[in-house]
## 1
Amino acid sequence: MRAAWTIIKKALPQGIFALCLLCAGSASAKCGGVDYSWGADALAKQHDFVVTMMLYVLYLIYAVASVVVIYASLQIYIKMNTGEDGVKKEIMMVVGACLFLIGASTVFPAFFGYRI
């Protein structure tokens, strides 16, 4: 009797652990087909969020670019009045930056399939 009690005493924690694992596995198992439609809804919601944020970032870039262009134009005006060299170079840099921002704001969204 004592030997049987020792065996039960050693096997009891392992048996309880195995029983807990089996019960948890069967409780969390789904029966039948799995519905993945919740993933499509979340993906559509994130798509809308990204498109909205893309528009806000584009408008923010336009605002920053306009401030930079005004600042650069004032620098060019001051250089022209003081007679410094490099006025033509500064004008070309401002025009190039404007062309890049216009091109980038059109090409980058179109690259990902969006029309703005």
Note: Residues 37-82 form the longest helix (46 residues).
## 2
Amino acid sequence: MIKQIIASALITASVYSYAQTKVTEGTKFTVDANLETDDKLVLADDYNSYMFSAINIDGLMRNTFPHKKLLMRKLDQNGSLVDTYVKDYANKTNGVLHNYLGSQQIDDDKFIAFTEEYFGKENRKEVFQHVFSRKDGAFTTKSIAKYSIESTNRSGTTYVLFSENGKYAAIFNDRFANKKTDNVNDVLVMDLRTLSPVWNKEITLSNDYVEKSLTLTNSAKIVVLRKAAGWKESYKLELVSNTEDKDLPFDDKYIPEKLYAFSKNDNDYLVTFGRKNAAVTIGASTFGTVMYYDMKSGKAVISNTNLAGSKDMNDVKVIKTIVKGDEVLMAVQQETVTRPMPTTMNRFPDPVYSLDAGMLMKFNKEGEVKQFVAAGTSTGKRIHVVEAGDKLYISAFYPKGAFGNTGFSMKVFDFANLKPQEVSLDYKGRNFFQNYGFADGNMIQYVPNVNKMMFLQKSSKDVQMFNVYNFIK
């Protein structure tokens, strides 16, 4: 009997290992690409998946009532549209303004989005959480913070932060301040697993520095990067928690511009993207430096990279962090903002955001950058990284055809040496990745228990799902 069980298990494993790659297609469905933003493929398993998007258009921009909605589209196993759940988060009171602040998947059932509304007439600002449950098929809305403001134009700025481990979210209300007022901020840190506060307090920071970057650690602490007000080139890192408020010392010849927190062996670390002081370096070497900072010991290791080129580092986005033993790998991209020229039909065009090529950056045990590898060229899309054993499957984008249409490829990197190998898949007589799979990284998901890659391809009018089974080896 035992031999039969073992034989059966071996046969099953063999069939799974050599299962044939197949592609299934969902039916196209329509979207409004001009209105919908922050598209994400979320809550995915082999039975259903969901497409989230937000509409955050003020009425004056379209000479109509404000468009303020959260949308969750339910898709079936192949990716065809089953249902659409809509949350209108606009308070229709005249003069009330709103903002979509950010969102993230909590677990296999829940997805959370944050919005704010502020009303100068009543001198108030309010932050809301909207939790979608796939089990209930509905959004549940709750007010989680209320703040006083001076006026609509002096309402401050609200930031939403998520920890790298996905367990915590923070609401950071940076109040309006000037030389005559204190620099006061309100901080609420939440446990996303229970949707309850971890800590909530008012913090006062010195007026001689202003906030430049924020990050939330995996232990629910806030680190604030602050720059000296005025012309002085001086920076400081400040750690804030329910029980702490202290500076984190580092070499004053280093200029941090963007913060990112992660953990290794239960210890908190920072990676700061920045540059060295121009007084001690020459030309382009002032850019592209990375500081690996141990928040427990205060040890800092600075490495040079060619990440930024001639640009600064404040728009670097960390796509994924992987910790293997003593090594840390980060997949990063840098955002580029262009501002179109005004026209007679559009005097105030919206800025256009795009992402540069993805880069893989590996730190050794000491925190030095030892490998720095391009994941491919780019046409502005976000990459997606799937970790499968010692392999990394990474989407990369490049122009193809005479008109530079967006193409797509999958590359496989060995974690140890980061040597790339481009992989292909024939489908309908063509390379699937060049003709079907050009999805943004936020619209790609991997379901490991059925070895299924999901690509949600979006055009200006419609969306279509492509599912690839047994591609990950």
Note: Residues 19-378+421-469 form a domain with the Methylamine Dehydrogenase; Chain H fold (CATH 2.130.10).
